[in-house]
Amino acid sequence: MPYLFPDDYVLNVSSSGLDRPVVSDDDFRRALGTEIEVCSKEGKIHGILKEYSAQDFTIVTGDKNPKDKTISRNNKTKVQPYIRF
What we know:
With about 80 residues, this protein is mostly beta strands.
């Protein structure tokens, strides 16, 4: 039986967008109800994205005592999906 590939090769498989930043309104819409991580000058926090607008967004933090936290959408705030291992 002939080989499909004459030489050895390496196949890399990855998930595109798993840790892709949440930037646009469409990204925020897709992330509604999911857990996100926010990195800002105040530090890192994560929670469930509850709502968003053009100026800010709100996440629900904490498991036992949930609290709403509203964060400004600016260029200094990095938002991405929170990945649990």
